[in-house]
Predict the structure.
Amino acid sequence: MATNLTGSCMCGAIQYEISKRSRLIVNCHCTICRKGNGSAFSTYAAVLESGFSIVSGADSIQTYALGEKGEKNFCGTCGSPIFNKNNKYPGFYMVHYGSLNLPHNIEPSTNVFFDNKLPWVCSIEQLNNFAEEMKK
Ligand SMILES: [Zn+2]
Ligand SMILES: [Zn+2]
């Protein structure tokens, strides 16, 4: 039997479980996601709303409305983004990939808003790489 995916925010107040496997993991390179998450691009697991449950910390979830586009849900204590709702995809939550406990189990298959990607993204392995923190 497949183990459920689990996840949390950084401070641990919010814990969630995904009972139905995500069918699609996407990297979004759009400007809204870039601003909203402070990252070069954002990775999401699209999961059925009916397969997503908050195990604890539901009262810590803060919601920011993105106008007609949807909403962003994040931890009111530590600020970690947990999931977005995109009004174009009713019935789905776009779970922030980095909040998953074992993100290496599942990989993105798709880039959206790829024309908007930052030019260095595709050559990330060419940077100066350190296995852990940068050494002086
Ligand atoms: Zn938190
Ligand atoms: Zn986006």
Observations:
- Residues 28, 30, 32-33, 42, 113 surround zinc ion (ligand 2) (CB under 6 Å).
- The longest helix spans residues 31-37.
- Residues 27 and 111 are 5 Å apart (CA to CA).
- The chain has one helix and ten strands.
